[in-house]
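PROTOCOL LOG
Step 1. Enter all chains and additional molecules of the complex.
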Amino acid sequence: MKKVLAVDDSATMRNLVKIALEAEGFSVDTAQNGQEALELTKKNTYDIVISDINMPVMDGLQFLKEFRSFNRTTPFLMLTTETEAKKKEEAKRLGATGWIVKPFKPEDLIKVVRRVVR
Amino acid sequence: MKYLIKFRLGKDVFERAIDPRMYLEELKELGKAEVKILEENIPSPEETPTQKHCFKADVILETEKSKEEILELLEFILEDGVSVETLEGKDSSKKTQEEEDSEIPSTLLKNYKIETEEILSRLRTSLEELLENPGSLELVNEIFRNFHTLKGNTALLLSYKKEPNLEYIHQITHKAESVLQKVRDSGIGLTNRQAEVIGELVDRLDDLFLAFSEGREEKVEDIFSLLEELDKSIEEKDNLIKGEEVSVDLSAFINVTSQYIPLYRELCSKEELTEEEKDFFRRSLMTLFKISKEVGFSEINKKIKDLQNAFGNIDFKEFCENLEELSNKIQTLIEKEIKPKKKEKDSKKTFDTSKYVTKTEYLKIEEKLIRDLMDIVGELSVFKEWIILFSTKLQKVYRVPEASKELKDRIYRFRGLMESLQRTVLEMRMIPVSTLFERFPKLIRDLSRTLNKRVRLEIEGGDTKLDKVIIEKIAEPMIHLIRNAVDHGIESPEERERLGKPPEGLIKIRAFQEGGNVFIEISDDGRGIDPQKIKKKALEIGLYSEEELNNMAEEEIIQIVFQPGFSTKERATELSGRGVGMDVVANTLRNLGGEVYLYSEKSLGTTVRLSLPLTLAIRKILLFRVGSVTFGIPAESVGEVLKVNSESIKSIKGLKVLYHRGRVLELDSIADKLGVESKVNGFVTLLVDNSLSRAVVVDEVLNTIDTVVKPLPPVVTTSEDISGVTILGDGSIVYILEVLN
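Step 2. Run joint prediction.
Step 3. Record the structure below.
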């Protein structure tokens, strides 16, 4: 079973990602911020990481930066909003594989995830 | 569609854990892909990507997918050295243009209108609540969802047709949605003013929607300043939360405090705070302190300072009490600021009350209920007939002319009411033919593509109404006729040019009502039908003798295509003109109580005219008598009524037959079939079917009536010849027979 790590400070968003991907046969771990997520990625191996940008404690970009310092092969999807065009560029530069623009429908998420995880 | 997709990827993508080979696999799944790898140096998982790593390949892809879909698939690497070029097939931009022209399907439109009314009414409810409680995030979510749904629905309609009101609705909902998204992201509710602005937006959406429904244009330029204001105030708020420098004034103070207060109250109801929440207290008090100082609220400023110092040092409950006191003070202050503004708004509101009344144009009703209602109306109208009979009886049998007169005087009014009741119920079953016609533009596009024809479609009278059941039943025949028109009627563009016609053929579909009938005409400006060819074919198949054909007018000859056995597939395709199964079309129409007629002029075009009854609920029934029993038969199934001497009926191999117009009619006797005693000798009456091949023997034809036919429940059906019953004015029950189908 493919493992996903979903990182978002919004419980609604975490749940949305979890429910959508579990229905597709993924196993989903969640974290509330970059710090928590970073600890999880050090302990476990994931097939894909999906993370929000704006989060307390450690934001998504910082998390991505630290994550890529020890992992270059796991796809990383950024959750962005339409107004965060600049951050998308930043995320790409830091090694984000792709992005999903919020708000998205579960089927859009699944489509994008399927595009990076076979 | 054929595309050339060029991959020119370098180090960057490998740093993002992208494996280009995966994209190749995905492209291969879309269709036929020809992959040419030019250079491939992909780093292994252990390797650090450097400048030497690259992936260069060209893919020629043949697929059904649109360019947009392919671009979407490649989204994450599009800016990193991937290009998509259309080699063959229609450009997607052209395609969207084509879609722009199409009409919005009426069912979609209907659903959109119903749902939009619901959404707007939900938005109004939420807004009422929001004005009471602007800080509520739950309400913001609720409103966001409604804007989101409306935006999506509107975008769907816009994909069919660009309409200015819809464009505005889309822009407003889009903007409002993204603004509210920011509010949701920030986790802090709206201020009163922001809630008011959103209220204004909903008002404008209302206006726009109404304008859209009524087909006029609405001016909404001022909406953009509102949107801008909303956007700005939220951004300011965003910055304040982050503690960034902004110009501070009273409105900012109101902004911030009205967001904080609900949150403070929420947090104070908690037993314990998380680190994050404590952090929020410290930061927010700091912000409040900074602003209140600048605005010059010294009393409040002092209170905030105290609270700042108290936080963490005194009991949380006590802190909350102090905070509550502060909140109340701030709120009073804010209310003072906002009230005058609100008053102004209120007076405007009373002036515009009409805007707040929901207007619902549609009501969904189960089809069965309408059928039931129709039945009841049917029985009522029988009862009406009985009353009329009774009034006569009062005079003639019971000899109370006064009562009879009084009753008769009232009956006219009753009769009028009954008629309008019947009309209204019938109206309820009627839907515009556009529900059927809206499928045709696509049909024509598909057909002309497969048949390599160029065809323009013109539709007229889409709002003509017909019984829903009839619309469902004529769908097939109409598609059939349109296919024939494109396939056999319209010539190829080259041929048309040779003939001096415009290369693009024209198919016109026209619906209109005349009296109790609806007519639908399907015309083309194609090659028309050659009567000589029909003559030849009819002779060959032996449908008519040469003499018969010579006596027929050209118009009559053309109608032969509707004869069963004339137009089978093999025969018809080689015939210039009409095609497949015209007899099936004619039959369907006749069963509905309608007719079909063909007009054609060689090399100028063909018109098929369908004439249809308005409704199937009321049918024309031919009443006849066998012995002492009255029966009915759907009038449309009777082609001819004949009176013949019973001696002219011959018997061949046990079958009764009659020679009529040079043809052999096979006879059935109702009396024998249903075991009724016939009392006729000498002359008998024959009801002949439409194709002049069968007839039934009855005693006497009485008259025709328009009546509601009730089907018989299967349990009481003893003979398959009986399809239903109807009740006559005198209360007697008449069986409706289906003996000529």
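Step 4. Note key features.
The CA atoms of residues 74 and 109 of chain A lie 17 Å apart.
Chain A has one domain: 3-116.
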